[in-house]
C-alpha cells in the first residue's frame, strides 16, 4: 500500500506552483471533486475548477495546518491566501470582479486515495467568509437596493 499522504502533498505543491498539468496528475481520470461552489466529475473539470480559482487569485497559496489519516482517507485542514486579481464566481452566480483585496480562508478537505491518485476530493469552506473578504456582502446590499 502506498502512502496516502503523497498525492495530497503533490496537490498542495502543484497548486502552490500553479502547475495545472501537475495538479491534474494527482487525480485519477474519473476522480470527483465536490466543493461548496461546484462539482467536478472528472480530471478535466477538476483542473478547470482549480484554474478558475488561480485566475481569480494568481498569487494563491495553500498552507496545511493538519492532516489526519484513516486508511486511504485523509482529512486536511489548511488556509488559502491570495490577492483577488481576476473575476471570481460568487454564490448565486454573480461574478466578483477583481478588488485587489487579500484573502485568508480557513478550509478543510476529505480525500480518498487509490493507486497513488486522489479519487474523491471534498472541499469545505465558508463562502460567506470569502465573500465578506472580497466585499461581496456590500455589493449584494447595493444590488438589492437597486432592485
TrEMBL record:
Q: Which InterPro entries match?
A: Cyclase_SnoaL-like, NTF2-like_dom_sf, SnoaL-like
Transmembrane parts of this sequence: none
Q: Which Pfam families match?
A: SnoaL_2 (PF12680)
**Gene3D superfamilies the record matches:** 3.10.450.50
Q: Which SUPFAM superfamilies match?
A: NTF2-like (SSF54427)
Annotated SnoaL-like domain ranges read 9-121
Q: What is this protein called?
A: Ester cyclase
Amino acid at each position: 500500500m502506498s502512502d496516502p499522504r503523497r498525492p495530497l502533498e503533490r496537490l498542495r505543491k502543484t497548486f502552490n506552483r500553479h502547475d495545472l498539468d501537475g495538479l491534474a496528475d494527482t487525480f485519477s481520470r474519473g476522480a470527483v471533486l465536490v466543493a461548496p461552489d461546484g462539482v467536478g466529475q472528472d480530471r478535466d473539470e477538476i483542473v478547470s475548477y482549480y484554474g478558475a480559482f488561480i485566475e481569480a487569485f494568481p498569487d494563491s497559496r495553500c498552507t496545511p495546518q493538519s492532516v489526519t489519516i484513516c486508511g486511504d482517507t485523509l482529512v486536511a485542514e489548511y488556509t488559502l491566501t491570495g490577492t483577488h486579481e481576476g473575476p471570481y464566481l460568487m454564490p448565486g452566480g454573480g461574478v466578483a470582479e477583481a478588488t485587489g483585496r487579500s484573502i485568508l480562508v480557513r478550509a478543510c478537505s476529505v480525500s480518498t486515495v487509490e493507486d497513488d491518485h486522489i479519487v474523491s476530493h471534498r472541499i469545505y469552506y465558508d463562502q460567506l467568509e470569502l465573500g465578506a473578504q472580497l466585499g461581496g456582502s456590500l455589493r449584494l446590499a447595493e444590488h438589492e437596493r437597486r432592485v
